[in-house]
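A quick aside before the break. I want you to see a complete sequence-to-structure record at least once, exactly as it would be stored in a machine-readable document. Don't worry about memorizing anything.
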Amino acid sequence: MDKLRNYDVSFSGLKTGKHEFSFEIDKEFFQLFDTEQEFTNPKIISSVLLDKHSTFLEFEIKVDGTVELVCDITNENFDHPIENQINVLVKFGEEYDDSEEDVITIPTNDHAFNVAHLIYENVALSIPMKKISPNVSDEDLEILEKFSPKEVEEEEHESDPRWDALKNLKNKN
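That is the input. The structure line, written in tokens, reads:
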């Protein structure tokens, strides 16, 4: 948890207005979280723009860089660009609460806000579900299409008059 402190944005001594912070995100950053990653070799810069107001804080967190993914078709590694932005409003209250999607409440006596989890989520949201290398050839795609399961059209069955009577009742309502 101590290494997560490197991603604290201290706002207590800052004047009202905009302030910019930057973080280098690499493999060590993701090792701070106890989850398995779908990518390797991250080279990401996260820029955090803090707009401090007297009663709340606005954070704009951008990530930009590359990660290495494994292609679902060819099983080869390729670099995938990462670019994403999330905006979060931080307000002050009695205790920490992140139950709202874009609003986080932190205790009034806090003097810093940790952005590590937000950066992590921002990168995770940038990873595509289908990982297809830009180097995939047309032949590979044709072979994949050839052996992909096809949708089977349903055959019309002879209708049972008992069910037809029930369907007629349903259609009248």
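Two observations worth writing down. The beta strands are 8-10, 17-25, 40-52, 56-70, 77-93, 103-107, 112-114. The radius of gyration is 25 Å. We'll return to this after the break.
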